[in-house]
């Protein structure tokens, strides 16, 4: 069993395709039709075309290797059997009402598992909104507007497709995007531990973010996280929520937090406690160099936000090293009467020399990570030139926390991003991103 | 001493006004010139006009009641003396380098305090970027683009003007705004306890948010917070940060957290631990009705985000009451096979009946606060009609957590806001807003 046909299918059958807007089989068609491969709408009760593709009566009439099953749950076993006979290797089952419902649902899912096993079919789901690989124009999902999700270098693997979608749109809104996103749902035979290694091999994925409600497979998840080279960020949820409600979602087994804490306590793996932190940590681990230590140099143009940053970083185990005599001298020379030339360095206001102050701190041998805070002023702009030189000459993460009117700072923000300098809004998000970098190397020699 | 001339000055003198772009006296002029009152640029070394206003040599030649002092710190005592002699009642001192620097700076601030006392001048600052009252077109600040800050019903009182500005732009970016915003800086004679009662009386301010680094006046702050009717949200920072760095900012005295915890532990007052929570709590307390209790009814169109919400609320002391038999029956009737009809109610997907499910839960007598989560779908939209009826007939806070592409949902989001239904992004922000509502009534009978 392999996931390769999920990534590069030659032909896609949409079983239960529909010409009626609003139907799941129509939404799925509207997303999949942009893919550069054979597209087969399958529906014995329909004729003519949908999105320019001719309906066929059965998956047996297609050369599909991937099938998106848009039929009601009770029809799934029969349709999956037909897929198996037709040589389909991979299926996405959108319908819910399986193990998470208990009773008949559980029996139905067991039957699906047996059929998948018999024909060696990789099944994503059931009970999922599917997946998306934007750079490949591949949208195995019925979610409207999923094609608006941006292309990026963070891979999302979420137990809940609803969370995967929320995260993907949020990432897009921030001007970023995803390398791919997966909603695992009930995980009949496609688990976290199956998807993670594929993303680890994917050259477009530079960080993997996980949303975990619970999996029977926690040991294998632990092992896989240990083996991969790509940085991983994990958000484990559902420990405090009503266990009945959690189980009713994707049939997550109950585990105690400690099980996951142990599984996720390893170098290269960061744990977080909100969706925003999950995305920010993913972005920063994907874009910034790996730091050599937890020594943070803070440069702020406004002391107040600098204090908030400092508060957060103290909690995260950051070290604020003394700057070298050379750096202090350079900073003192840059502007007389600068507010605070220890670490944090506080320039009191944005100023033309701000970029040089950042440069001095970034080149300091005592500093492993640089965190900058600056409210944007049009007449000064952001120190893009200095950051360009730094990105070429200094292999340290530099995180730039921005504030001010979005329109005014958008262009320079994008320039900084292009240089590998992640930009974040609000003091706490900047600080939490640095905390993620520190956690990513904790436990390493 | 009164703050009234800070709110409705008849004439404003900009002492140190300049025709040179980039100078603080030019930036301040560019902001103040839109105000509908007398504007006097004061500078003995300049002649001609700036922004259409004629330079005068001295504040004595003006009828100003408010002066913005844009001169270097060593000139401040002399200029303030001139203001006093000219009958100016209120001054904003932007320059830094006073008590927070120690030594000569402390002496200078003491001198300013003496002069302010002698002439009964209300001084905002020193060491501040000033203040803004957008609805009055009144911008007593040198911050470029501060005039882009939106008009809203939340008043910001921040010890750090940098934080006040960050918060104001953030609020604007979210489609909200402020009733007024103040950076207190070194608080020579204008403290939290002076500004809060004025905002409490201000009919445009429906919630007050505080950013506190430290004040010698913690007892008076406590008392004032107790006395006012307007809901207050407080973010106390700087307890973990390097105390030297904190003191070097606005000369905040060191107190232990417990002092503030005690001061802020009262009904109507909410404490938070990030700038985003501060603004979200302010928005929700300003816009939503006060809840009668901590019983939360959650309605979600996607279980995964619902579980995250549930996790956060369990931590916040929320109660998830059983729905009445009547509500359960109504919800069951609305759609057969709905995913989870307990509380949280999970519809599994957005659906045409979603608004009616929200309506059923909101009208349930066991429910005090409603939290909704729904990923936007164009074909269904958000349930604006049902929310309109609820806002007229049910006096409970309803918080709507939105997700999806911003452009698609913007219009309906604004419609919900207009109905008094605050909208927030990400599951954790929705849940934290509800937590703020619960904290605001804790301790009440």
- Order of strands, main sheet of chain A, comes to 9-8-11-10-12-13-14
Query: What class would the helix/strand composition of chain A place it in?
Result: alpha/beta
Q: What gyration radius of chain A follows from the Cα positions, in whole Å?
A: 25 Å
Number of helices of chain A: 16
- Return the average pLDDT of chain A rounded to an integer: 93
The overall number of domains of chain A is 3
Number of strands of chain A: 19
Description of the molecule:
The structure is a homodimer of 445-residue chains. The first copy, chain A, is 38% helix and 19% strand. Chain A is of the alpha/beta class. The first copy, chain A, folds into 3 domains: 1-127, NAD(P)-binding Rossmann-like Domain (Rossmann fold); 149-287, Succinyl-CoA synthetase domains (Rossmann fold, 3-Layer(aba) Sandwich); 290-441, Rossmann fold (3-Layer(aba) Sandwich). In chain A, the strands form 4 sheets. A 7-stranded mixed β-sheet of chain A has the order 9-8-11-10-12-13-14, with helices on both faces. A 5-stranded parallel β-sheet of chain A has the order 2-1-5-6-7, with helices on both faces. In chain A, strands 16-15-17-18-19 form a 5-stranded parallel β-sheet, sandwiched between helices. The two termini of chain A are 37 Å apart. At the A-B interface, α5, α8 and α11 of A face α5, α8 and α11 of B.
Topology:
Two copies of one chain form a homodimer.
Chain A (H helix, E strand, L loop, with lengths): L3 H4 L3 E5 L8 H9 L5 E5 L6 E2 L2 E2 L11 E4 L6 H10 L4 E4 L10 H16 L2 E3 L5 E4 L4 E4 L9 E8 L2 H13 L4 E6 L8 H10 L5 E6 L5 H10 L4 E5 L6 H8 L6 H8 L4 E3 L3 H13 L8 E5 L2 H13 L9 H10 L10 E2 L7 H9 L6 E7 L8 H10 L4 E6 L2 H13 L4 E3 L1 H15 L4
């Amino acid at each position: 069993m392999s996931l390769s046909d999920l990534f590069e299918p030659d032909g896609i059958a949409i079983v239960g395709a529909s010409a009626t807007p609003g139907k799941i089989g129509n939404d799925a068609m509207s997303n999949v039709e942009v893919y550069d491969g054979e597209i087969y709408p399958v529906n014995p009760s329909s004729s003519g075309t949908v999105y320019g593709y001719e309906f066929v009566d059965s998956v047996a009439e297609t050369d599909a290797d991937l099938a998106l099953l848009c039929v009601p749950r009770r029809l799934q076993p029969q349709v999956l059997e037909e897929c198996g006979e037709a040589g389909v290797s991979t299926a996405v089952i959108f319908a819910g009402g399986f193990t998470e419902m208990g009773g008949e649902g559980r029996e139905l899912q067991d039957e699906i598992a047996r059929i998948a096993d018999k024909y060696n079919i990789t099944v994503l789901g059931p009970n999922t909104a599917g997946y998306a690989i934007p750079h490949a124009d591949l949208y195995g999902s019925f979610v409207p507007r999923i094609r608006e999700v941006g292309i990026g270098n963070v891979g999302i693997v979420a137990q809940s497709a609803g969370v995967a979608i929320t995260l993907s749109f949020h990432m897009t809104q921030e001007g970023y995007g995803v390398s791919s996103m997966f909603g695992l749902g009930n995980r009949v035979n496609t688990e976290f531990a199956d998807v993670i290694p594929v993303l680890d091999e994917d050259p477009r994925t530079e960080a993997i973010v996980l949303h975990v409600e619970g999996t029977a497979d926690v040991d294998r998840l632990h092992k896989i996280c240990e083996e991969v080279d790509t940085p991983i960020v994990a958000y484990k949820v559902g420990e405090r929520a009503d266990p009945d409600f959690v189980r009713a979602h994707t049939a997550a087994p109950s585990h105690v937090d400690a099980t996951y804490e142990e599984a996720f306590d390893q170098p290269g793996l960061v744990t977080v406690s909100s969706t925003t932190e999950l995305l920010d940590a993913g972005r920063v681990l994907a874009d910034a160099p790996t730091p050599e230590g937890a020594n943070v140099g803070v440069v702020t143009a406004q002391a107040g936000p600098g204090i908030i940053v400092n508060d957060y970083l103290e909690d995260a185990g950051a070290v604020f090293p003394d700057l070298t005599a050379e750096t202090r001298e350079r900073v003192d020379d840059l502007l007389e009467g600068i507010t605070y030339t220890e670490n944090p360095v506080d320039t009191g206001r944005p100023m033309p020399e701000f970029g040089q102050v950042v440069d001095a701190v970034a080149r300091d041998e005592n500093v492993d990570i640089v965190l900058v805070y600056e409210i944007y002023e049009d007449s000064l702009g952001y120190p893009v030139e200095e950051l360009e030189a730094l990105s070429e000459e200094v292999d340290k993460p530099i995180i730039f926390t921005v504030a001010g009117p979005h329109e005014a700072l958008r262009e320079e923000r994008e320039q900084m991003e292009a240089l590998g300098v992640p930009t974040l809004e609000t003091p706490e998000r900047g600080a939490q991103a640095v905390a993620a970098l520190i956690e990513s190397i904790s436990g390493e020699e």
